[in-house]
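As the next step, I selected for study a record pairing a protein sequence with its backbone structure tokens, which the following lines show:
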Amino acid sequence: MERYIDYAAWPRKELFEFFGAVSNPFYMVTFRQDVTALRRYCKEHAISFYYGLVYLCCKALMDVPEFSLRIRGEKIAVLETLKPSFTDLKKGSELFHIVTMPCEGGIMEFCRNAKEKSSRQDYFIDAAGQTDGLVYFSCLPWMDVTAVTNERDLSAPGARDDSIPRICWGKYREENGRTTLGLSIEVNHRLIDGVHIGLFAQALTRRIEEIS
């Protein structure tokens, strides 16, 4: 059974309504993320760094309750889980497809399942699986990312209700024995403030460190 916020008693009600009055309530933050332990782990276990970071980001988002909120008309739903939906290049091609799958099991299991699902997928996107319980992921491994925005149809009905976080990162770089990358996250300010992005960054760092 779905659960919803008690809107009348919701402490965020005033902020939600304030940012709900603007035509474009979305904003983006990019920060440098240390991924040294994850890079080492992926090398040692011969798994995809990309899939591994998708998994850990999704888990870190679930550590911060605000990222599990979704705007549904006059109601605010509280999701029990989040599902990653990530871009992946077709082998030997510049074209990509979008893989959507549950964030289940451990990191090893997720990476194996993601590799298998992506390799079998012969269509661009599963339109039926595009629900508001997703998190969108992408990667630009050819360059050091300092900022990323995302396409939106702001003229569509309910466009300002879009509550799906969008995460993208770029090429990782080695410096002084550490591996870092620029990670960009775009959110709806009606639900997410800077403090919540800070908590996500802390949760992601903790999960990366714990993997070693």
In short: The mean pLDDT is 96. The longest strand covers residues 178-188. The two ends are 37 Å apart (CA to CA). DSSP finds five helices and ten strands in the chain.
